[in-house]
Automatic annotation (TrEMBL):
<dbReference type="Pfam" id="PF08502">
    <property type="entry name" value="LeuA_dimer"/>
</dbReference>
<dbReference type="Pfam" id="PF00682">
    <property type="entry name" value="HMGL-like"/>
</dbReference>
<keyword id="KW-0808">Transferase</keyword>
<dbReference type="GO" id="GO:0009098">
    <property type="term" value="P:L-leucine biosynthetic process"/>
</dbReference>
<dbReference type="InterPro" id="IPR013709">
    <property type="entry name" value="2-isopropylmalate_synth_dimer"/>
</dbReference>
<dbReference type="Pfam" id="PF22617">
    <property type="entry name" value="HCS_D2"/>
</dbReference>
<dbReference type="GO" id="GO:0003852">
    <property type="term" value="F:2-isopropylmalate synthase activity"/>
</dbReference>
<dbReference type="InterPro" id="IPR054691">
    <property type="entry name" value="LeuA/HCS_post-cat"/>
</dbReference>
<comment type="similarity">
    <text>Belongs to the alpha-IPM synthase/homocitrate synthase family.</text>
</comment>
<dbReference type="GO" id="GO:0043714">
    <property type="term" value="F:(R)-citramalate synthase activity"/>
</dbReference>
<keyword id="KW-0100">Branched-chain amino acid biosynthesis</keyword>
<dbReference type="InterPro" id="IPR000891">
    <property type="entry name" value="PYR_CT"/>
</dbReference>
<dbReference type="InterPro" id="IPR005675">
    <property type="entry name" value="Citramal_synthase"/>
</dbReference>
<dbReference type="GO" id="GO:0009097">
    <property type="term" value="P:isoleucine biosynthetic process"/>
</dbReference>
<dbReference type="InterPro" id="IPR002034">
    <property type="entry name" value="AIPM/Hcit_synth_CS"/>
</dbReference>
<keyword id="KW-0412">Isoleucine biosynthesis</keyword>
<protein>
    <recommendedName>
        <fullName>Citramalate synthase</fullName>
        <ecNumber>2.3.3.21</ecNumber>
    </recommendedName>
</protein>
Length: 536
């Protein structure tokens, strides 16, 4: 059986750049583009040349893609202007793009109110602009903005917009759910009606996630005949984001309803890099990966229920909807107060701590985990702290250093220029194992925990080289009980900039500083252990 080809169009570098807080540099764009090309995507939309200095510079030369088509985005020419007299369209034509995707109004209401022109003038601008792209020998596409809203209001005109682009030579016409308000049953109906009149193998789908249905809407459109899929890595995009390519790609390749009918440019080998690609993007944006993201999240194949853990080990295919390794992820059987012996054994095996299932130390470890979690600890998140705890039970953890005392001070005062500022300072007294002289360190920070972290990592003597590249990148506090004797749980996430590795540690105490300090200590000890540091 011959499979139909689906074409994947990534718009992370344009739509994704509209995400609140995201601002790609040229270097960011180049690295992300290379990452996307390595996945096997067909089109990589790099942005809008002429709209800003970054995008203009990015399109000055063509990236060395292995297979993807370098695509520029922009508007059709303005009504009343010729192609040669429209600066925006000329910037697109002057770019190094392989393909050019133009956007035009498909809703007659917007043609009248936003553009202030007639429906016929809008169609003429579309036809002239598409023809101008085709004349340069490049592939032309049209994004039909607000297509679904326009179709609901005036189906004949929305269809005429699409047909005009196809007649002018567009390879693709993309149906856009621009405000993300269309629901799957509406997409299914409307796309079905459109593909009865226009060829589906020249249609694409572009959805936003404002109702949480962008992926579902995209899949509904594919089932009704469209053959180009637009989306962004990790679902980046303005407002609630775009269709998540990180979810769409494995669904298309691994789910039988699609995998038996369609093929894409993504190979099984490339699919196994998907989790890595997702996390590289998060690192570039300085964001923690979303742990419950489908397919690629740390929790995507995790369980902490003992009965399920035991069953997964015996028959993973019926408990996991796809093999985690197919997308570059891994199974995680978490240790918590809901866990059983199977979780502990599986976690120990993953850590390289072989233990017999009848070893009495396993039950002792499980009992301690449950007791500590009853007191407020959370090891399903803080796996680095769990590894330290497990190793102390089974094989021991070297004692690299001990903290004799620490002090944290927060003071509000006037600085040298008379401004009222709040300053946090911390001092730490440390004894490195095997040495008799104490090491005193002090640091300031933008808060007491930041100051304490800085002081603790400032000078660990012979171990300092192992921790120079680590940084506290996330800090979460949860108050577990109310009242004046509230118990506080702190989760600290640390990153090693030399390796890109991240790990979480936990601390619990009625005192938030003490809980933070415990988590920081675990973080440093974990790094020393993983670096192979030798205790005296």
């Amino acid at each position: 059986m011959t499979k139909e080809r689906l074409y994947l169009f990534d718009t992370t570098l344009r739509d994704g750049a509209q995400t609140t807080g995201v601002d790609f540099s040229i270097d960011d764009k180049r690295r992300i583009a290379t990452l996307l090309d390595g996945l096997g995507l067909d089109y990589i939309e790099g942005g809008y040349p002429g709209a800003n200095d970054t995008d203009t510079a990015f399109f000055a030369s063509k990236p060395a893609f292995r297979r993807a088509r370098f695509t520029a985005f922009g508007m059709v020419k303005r009504a009343g202007r010729s192609v040669s007299n429209d600066p925006g369209l000329q910037a697109l034509l002057a770019s190094a793009a392989d393909s050019i995707c133009l956007v035009a109004k498909a809703w007659d209401y917007h043609v009248r109110v936003a553009l202030g022109i007639t429906n016929e003038e809008n169609l003429a601008s579309i036809a002239d602009s598409i023809a101008a792209v085709v004349a340069t020998g490049r592939e032309a596409m049209l994004d039909c903005e607000h297509f679904f809203d326009g179709y609901k209001a005036n189906p004949a005109y929305a269809l005429e917009v699409a047909r005009t682009a196809l007649d002018a030579g567009a390879r693709w016409v993309v149906l856009c759910d621009t405000n993300g308000g269309t629901l799957p049953h509406e997409v299914e109906r409307i796309v079905g009606e459109v593909t009865n009149q226009l060829p589906g193998d020249r249609l694409g789908i572009h959805t936003h996630d404002d109702t949480g249905n962008a992926v579902a809407n995209t899949l509904a459109a594919v089932r009704q005949g469209v053959r180009q899929i637009q989306g962004t890595l990790n679902g980046l995009g303005e407002r609630c984001g775009n269709a998540n390519m990180t979810t769409l790609i494995p669904t298309l390749l691994l789910k039988s309803d699609f995998a038996t009918r369609f093929e894409t440019g993504v190979t099984p080998e490339a699919l196994r890099t998907l989790t890595h690609a997702s996390r590289v993007l998060d690192d570039l944006l300085n964001e923690a990966p979303r742990r419950q993201a489908p397919y690629v999240g740390e929790a995507a194949f995790a369980t902490k229920a003992g009965i399920h853990a035991s069953a997964i080990l015996k028959d993973p295919e019926t408990y996991e909807h796809v093999p985690p390794e197919a997308v570059g992820n891994q199974r995680r059987l978490l240790v918590s107060k809901q866990a059983g012996r199977s979780n502990v054994l599986a976690s120990l095996e993953r850590l390289g701590l072989a233990a017999d299932k009848d070893d009495p130390r396993i039950q002792t470890l499980l009992d301690e985990v449950k007791a500590r979690e009853s007191a407020g600890y959370a090891y399903e998140a803080a796996e680095a702290s769990f590894e330290l705890l497990a190793r102390r039970h089974l094989s021991g953890v070297p004692r690299y250093f001990s903290v004799d005392s620490f002090r944290v001070m927060v003071e509000r005062r006037h600085n040298a220029v008379g401004e009222l500022v709040t300053v946090s300072e911390a001092t730490v007294k440390v004894f490195v194992n095997g040495e008799t002289d104490a090491l005193w360190s002090a640091a300031e920070g933008n808060g007491p925990v930041n100051a304490l972290d800085g002081a603790l990592r400032k000078d660990l003597g012979r171990y300092q080289k192992h921790i120079d590249s680590i940084e506290l990148v996330d800090y979460k506090v949860r108050i577990l009980t109310g009242g004046t004797e509230a118990v506080t749980r702190v989760l600290v996430e640390t990153m090693d900039h030399a390796t890109g590795e991240r790990w979480l540690t936990v601390g619990v105490s009625p005192n938030i500083i003490d809980a933070s300090f415990e988590a920081l200590l675990d973080s440093i000890n974990y790094k020393l252990l993983k670096s192979g540091a030798v205790a005296a």
